[in-house]
Amino acid sequence: MNLPWHLYLMAFLYIIAGINHFRSPGMYIRIIPPAFKNPKLINTLSGAAEILLGILLTLPFTRKFAAWGIIVLLIAIFPANLFMLQNKKASFGLPKWILFLRLPLQIVLIYWAYQYTF
């Protein structure tokens, strides 16, 4: 299997991020907006999804599905990025400009995943 390095990088980043949901759940639970019920379950599901999608991204017969799954996941977690911008406790004390830059970063990540949908 001869995959481009950027595909391996993407898969690696999602797998590591997913594992981190289980290593440091409090960090992720803290940024889930209160409108969403059962933040522990949301954290577990999103972490498992990141790991699974990262693995599936490396398999030729599941790559397109995984890329679309990552796009859906990135859209689904966008409210957490907005919540971090709006809520001091969820922002981890990061400067507002960094939190604001995270918003368009989602578009870049979606575009990156989109490259593997065809």
UniProtKB/TrEMBL annotation:
It holds the Pfam family DoxX. It comes from the Bacteria. Keywords: Membrane, Transmembrane, Transmembrane helix. It is a multi-pass membrane protein. The chain crosses the membrane at residues 6-22, 42-59, 65-85, 97-114. It is found in: Membrane. This is DoxX family protein. It comes from Flavobacterium frigidimaris.
